[in-house]
Design brief:
The protein is mainly β. The protein has 1 helix and 28 strands. This is Hydrolytic protein.
Length: about 425
């Protein structure tokens, strides 16, 4: 607060209006703002200064002007000037986020600091922890702030040793934000600048969670049960099945479907007295001279006086390449005077192509599958599928989208391989 004395030196009654001008105008008032004086009299006016506690009103000297305007003689206006000293005050707003962080070895936090005082300050940061288990790093280590300026400081908390098993470890710590002004030696410390430390926690989670130990224990128990109980039983059943499979089957006493035990020795049909057939060889036999029919999946192979002889293991491969958007077929033809008894097929889609693949034995469609559903597919039959002479094994591929082989570059077309295996037998005459 300050005062201004106004004196009327004129020879008439005069009214004077007083107004604060300059930087102090927004927070200064005049009481009273208008006075009337007789000639030769004076009056003292009070100027009340109420600067706000804000960083916008910086500490230091501020010019104060009071304009005195006479009502009768406005040309005689006067402006009185002086200076006002704004005292310094210090105030910090700090915030640490998040207050709780989880991690294996380290956690990152953000420290926001705002200078709410009216003088520049430099702030420093001091961590606090009950022990020495945690390491702290501030980025930057200290920071200068102008009045009203906000800065964000990075804080990294690190734990040296991991927690392998068990419950998470909780490490509480504090962060103290201390400040000093540039003219700290001359300006006393403001008690409002002292703030309590910020509290936070670092929760160190174990590398292997508790549920993983339970799962591992369950797996070990299952493995022990397998090796002690299930595996011996499976091995015993497999050995019994193998022993039964290699045992010779007994020869039936009577012939089946008109076949007699002598038919395998080449005994043909004989003619007795009266022109009637005699002997047991009148049916279908496996030996020479026996007339019969062998039926496969795609039709029948007939031959007067012919029979399927002993065969040998054989396989054929169909390698088929198909352009995008086209349909191509690949075939394998059974040789003449032969029967192919198929027991296994394996189809490979090693590029991962997309499309449709159909496998046929003669006129019989075996399967139709989508290429994108497999890379390698195999089929097996206990009872062989017989393919007669001159009939074919056919693979038909419709290529929609070529895949990507092992070299990492997409192929220009689809490429599939079919291998068919079984016993190839000659038809004897």
């Amino acid at each position: 607060m300050t005062t201004v004395t106004v004196r009327n030196d004129s020879d008439i009654v005069e009214a004077y209006s007083l107004e604060v001008v300059g930087d102090c105008a927004s927070w200064a008032t005049v009481e009273p703002a208008r006075v009337s004086l007789y000639p030769g009299t004076s009056e003292t006016v009070t100027i009340r200064l109420q600067p706000p506690r804000s960083p916008e009103i910086r500490a230091g000297e501020v010019a104060l002007g009071v304009r005195v305007l006479p009502a009768e003689h406005p040309e005689s206006v006067r402006v009185l000037e002086t200076t006002v000293t704004i005292e310094a005050f210090h105030e910090l707003h700090t915030e640490l986020a998040p207050r709780r962080r989880r991690g294996w070895l380290r956690g990152r936090y953000r420290l926001a600091v705002r200078n709410q005082g009216n003088t520049p300050v430099r702030v420093g940061f001091t961590p606090g922890q009950a022990g020495d288990e945690l390491g702290f790093a501030f980025t930057p280590a200290d920071r200068g702030l102008e009045p009203g300026e906000t800065a964000e400081i990075g804080l990294r908390v690190r734990r040296g040793a991991p927690v392998w098993f068990g419950a998470p470890a909780v490490w509480p710590f504090t962060v103290d934000v201390a400040e000093r002004t540039d003219d700290e030696a001359e300006t006393p410390q403001d008690p409002t600048a002292v703030r309590p430390p910020l509290d936070a926690e670092f929760v160190q989670i174990p590398v292997f969670p508790r549920w993983l130990l339970i799962v591992l224990a369950a797996l070990i128990a299952l493995l022990l049960a397998w090796f002690t109980l299930v595996r011996p039983a499976v091995r015993s059943a497999a050995e019994e099945a193998a022993t039964e499979a290699v045992q010779p089957r007994p020869t039936p006493a009577g012939g089946e479907a008109g076949q007699t035990p002598d038919a395998g020795r080449g005994g043909g049909a004989g003619t007795g007295a009266g022109g009637q057939e005699t002997g047991a060889g009148a049916g279908t036999g496996a030996g020479p001279g026996a007339g019969g029919t062998a039926t496969g999946p795609g039709g029948s192979a007939e031959g007067a006086g012919g029979a399927i002889g002993a065969g040998q293991q054989s396989s054929a491969t169909i390698d088929l390449e198909t352009s995008t958007g086209r349909t191509e077929t690949g075939t394998y033809q059974v040789p003449r005077d032969s029967v192919f008894q198929v027991t296994d097929i394996v189809v490979a889609n090693f590029q991962g192509d997309e499309g449709v693949l159909t496998i046929s034995f003669g006129d019989r469609k075996i399967t139709t599958i989508a290429l994108e559903t497999f890379r390698n597919q195999d089929y097996h039959w206990v009872t062989p599928i017989k393919i007669p002479e001159n009939d074919t094994v056919t693979i038909e591929v419709t290529c929609e989208k070529p895949g990507t082989p092992a070299n990492g570059r997409q192929a220009r077309g689809c490429h599939e391989v079919l291998n068919v295996s079984g016993v190839l037998s000659r038809i004897t005459q």
